[in-house]
Amino acid sequence: xxxxxxxxxxxxxxxxxxxxxxxxxxxxxxxxxxxxxxxxxxxxxxxxxxxxxxxxxxxxxxxxxxxxxxxxxxxxxxxxxxxxxxxxxxxxxxxxxxxxxxxxxxxxxxxxxxxxxxxxxxxxxxxxxxxxxxxxxxxxxxxxxxxxxxxxxxxxxxxxxxxxxxxxxxxxxxxxxxxxxxxxxxxxxxxxxxxxxxxxxxxxxxxxxxxxxxxxxxxxxxxxxxxxxxxxxxxxxxxxxxxxxxxxxxxxxxxxxxxxxxxxxxxxxxxxxxxxxxxxxxxxxxxxxxxxxxxxx
Length: 297
What we know:
Blueprint: E1 4-11, H1 18-34, E2 39-42, H2 71-83, E3 86-96, E4 99-107, E5 113-118, H3 130-133, E6 143-145, E7 150-153, H4 162-170, E8 175-179, E9 183-184, H5 188-191, H6 195-211, E10 214-218, E11 221-225, E12 232-236, E13 240-242, E14 248-251, E15 258-265, H7 267-275, H8 279-282
Parallel strand pairs: 1-2, 2-3, 7-8, 8-10
Antiparallel strand pairs: 1-15, 3-4, 4-5, 6-7, 9-12, 10-13, 11-12, 13-14
Helix pairs in contact: 4-6
């Protein structure tokens, strides 16, 4: 029997004004709800430009202490309650001075704050200097029981690690959402080099197959210059949803804002796990202890 749950992915470009970005995102959430979406997810750090291209102490002023009385959470909670939708939103969290996280909050369709996930894997690469800004997450891998489905949240760099997807699925996640900010490095698009983009999609399709679940990747779009004039990031958009057989069910444009709404039949999860993907049954959990080591050769 079909169990359809429409999801909405908010792919958008961001400007310098966080207030305008917030208003824009709220407008897109309403649009997704108008189109029938019941679970709606923003891209990574949707309220600002992707500030991790350079080191800037002033950026810490953007961070917010999270909780039910936080203005961002309150606004999204009111919206979720009014539209009866689940909202997953990626924000810059301040726990204390000198202690910041890249965090996603999960708000249920009644407006209640179910909890939050803190990004576990923190990159430190050119144009992605996240280790300066973010402490590695300390809440573990989680699944949240919402009105419409059990959802897990992982964030951007987490998407390259199969262990993260596995543990989130083992917690009961039927849909894993990946709020993301990823794009072409300077010169890649001009050279026609799509290897990183292709790998980004393929690895997440693999997570869906290996765990017999749905995966929804929500990327930002548009060019954001480097604050110090060192090129910039050209975010490739192309947010997408894939099912438990690895089929891309819907994908967004590569060069413009888009509200991507896609209906997911959660009954396919049991079908895939029963008929094809007996991966949980056949896992040799007794043989994986060396996964906790950094390297073995």
